[in-house]
Amino acid sequence: MSAAKAMRLKAPCDSSEFANQKSFEALQQVAARYAVAITPAVAAMIDAADPHDPIARQFVPDVRELEHLPEENADPIGDDAHSPVEGVVHRYPDRVLLKLVNACAVYCRFCFRREMVGPGRGGLSRDALAAALDYIARTPGIWEVILTGGDPLVLSPRRLKDVMTRLAAIDHVKVIRVHTRVPAVAPERISPALVKALRTKKATFVVLHANHARELTEPARAACARFIDAGIPMLAQSVLLRGVNDDAETLGALMRALVECRIKPYYLHHTDLAPGTAHFRTTIAEGQELMRQLRGRNSGLCQPSYVLDVPGGYGKSPVGPNYLSDDCSVVEDFRGRRHAYPPRQKGCR
Length: 349
Ligand code: SF4
Fold this sequence. Notes:
The protein is an alpha/beta fold and 349 residues long. It has 11 helices and 11 strands.
């Protein structure tokens, strides 16, 4: 058990609190099933006096993780169905995921790959990496490679440099994207050597996973600036999470904080149907209403695309809201006012 895990799972000292003991046992069951890790940077973000702290909610185990619904799935976005070789997910024609490692700096309680990630789960062996790179090299339609995991930025600069160099040598790979939580949850890892490791002659983007403005601490902002100042643009993806960012003010503050850091909000994910995550999921209608409010209140730079990964591995679909009537005769503005649109215009039925 990690030190962080031990810290979180300390037994209740008041033996009269039978209920506490029971919930302690339940938390032990959660930790036995799903990985737990909290970095010092995340521990410092948590307000221990707030029982509803949105940072703690993302990383501290909760007994509700033991409640599994029939519609929840160990592989909710269908990675396995689209894996031609170990470590590669080829779902869309022009891009692949390359899953280098199954470990992360922290373990998010709502993770869509929670059944696959954890300490000691390893990553791609030398031979498996060679086979994965070979698949990419002999598939000319692959324009973009997305390094994911786990979190690829838990790897050493030396290993990252090796992978980046080998990918950059593949002529048809023009873009490399790195999906990570590390700049916010372990900003000290974003060293000059790591930044240098990601720089190649190919366009490289770092996509930060962040769900609350408080994750963008000064060290996190400085870590992101190291990428951007080195010519590596940043995007962000966030997950819509009940009790973390499911109100317009909190969500807007997150998007603004990202843009102020020169990070363009890219996706707002509807929470996937991973086991034991129902307490995080909003309804899609609630998500659409939040997106309407975001558009009504915040700059266009602050607008991510609200997407749902279609269960079964069918990819991401934007899920609205829709501002145009089915027959294109009415369009809604950012204040919710509806306006007629002239018939027989180009693009209308
Ligand atoms: S960092 Fe990403 S892969 Fe790792 S636990 Fe969080 S959501 Fe899952």
